């Protein structure tokens, strides 16, 4: 696939076929990730975890459910509105057959570089996924929620090496509807040119 075509086809996919990603396609994705740029080339600070076990994803998704409940509780306290008793089923991973978590070694030397690194890896994964006919979506919200619930032990569930923190996830799978090229609205990023 031509590079511009990959860029134009890439979109956030949130509906997946309930089929596993073929192992060789998953390997290709992980191989692509290795070509991502990393600050100071400290590649040893990045760790990827492939999760295909729905039970683990379900446990991690609990963080999003709890956060939504807390938000609903906050809303009730502030606005005195009725909160539905039933726990709303939330799947922050959209039923994707695989989620690749991007973790970074905790560090304070270069604040923020861990997110920049993780984003470079994530975008590389997205573009590779798209070029392979796979769909993907960046997962950020639930990872933030995971940190708010220490008893969830998300680093333990992900079996991370010591001192690593998961920052982003890329949920991937075979898209329910094949993706096609699209155009961008003109209201896109603003640009200024300096003479
Ligand atoms: C930093 C960042 C965080 C994001 N977090 C989430 C997320 O937690 N869940 C989700 O469904 N999409 C998430 N997205 C996907 C965006 O909503 C999506 O990229 C945006 O709406 C543009 O749509 P497109 O990807 O189809 O071009 C995130 C994207 C970025 C760049």
Attribute tags:
about 200 residues; alpha+beta; NADH Oxidase; four-stranded antiparallel β-sheet; 6 helices; 4 strands; about 15% strand; globular; binds flavin mononucleotide
How would you concisely characterize the structure shown here?
The chain is of the alpha+beta class. The chain has helices spanning 3-9, 23-33, 54-79, 113-131, 141-148, 154-157, and strands spanning 46-51, 98-105, 135-139, 164-173.
Question: Can you walk through the features of this model?
Answer:
The structure is a single chain. Helices cover 38% and strands 15% of the residues. The radius of gyration is 18 Å and the shape is globular. The protein is α+β, with helices and mostly antiparallel strands and 195 residues long. The longest helix has 26 residues, at 54-79. It has a 4-stranded antiparallel β-sheet. The model is unreliable at 81-88 (pLDDT under 50). It has a single domain, classed as NADH Oxidase (3-Layer(aba) Sandwich), CATH 3.40.109.10. The chain contains 6 helices and 4 strands, in the order ααβαβαβααβ. The chain binds flavin mononucleotide.
């Amino acid at each position: 696939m031509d590079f511009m075509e990959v860029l134009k086809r890439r979109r956030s996919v949130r509906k997946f076929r309930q089929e596993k990603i073929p192992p060789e396609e998953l390997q290709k994705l992980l191989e692509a990730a290795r070509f991502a740029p990393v600050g100071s080339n400290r590649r040893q600070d990045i760790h990827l975890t492939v999760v295909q076990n729905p039970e683990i994803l379900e446990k991690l998704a609990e963080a999003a459910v709890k956060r939504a409940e807390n938000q609903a509780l906050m809303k009730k306290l502030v606005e005195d509105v009725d909160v539905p008793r039933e726990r709303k089923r939330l799947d922050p991973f959209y039923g994707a057959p695989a989620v690749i978590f991007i973790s970074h070694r905790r560090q304070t030397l270069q604040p923020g570089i861990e997110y920049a690194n993780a984003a470079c890896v994530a975008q590389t994964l997205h573009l590779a996924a798209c070029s392979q006919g796979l769909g993907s979506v960046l997962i950020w919200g639930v990872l933030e929620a995971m940190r708010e619930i220490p008893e969830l032990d998300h680093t333990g569930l992900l079996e991370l090496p010591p001192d690593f923190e998961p920052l982003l996830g890329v949920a991937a799978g075979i898209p329910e509807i094949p993706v096609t090229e699209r155009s961008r609205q003109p209201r896109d990023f603003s640009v200024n040119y300096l003479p």
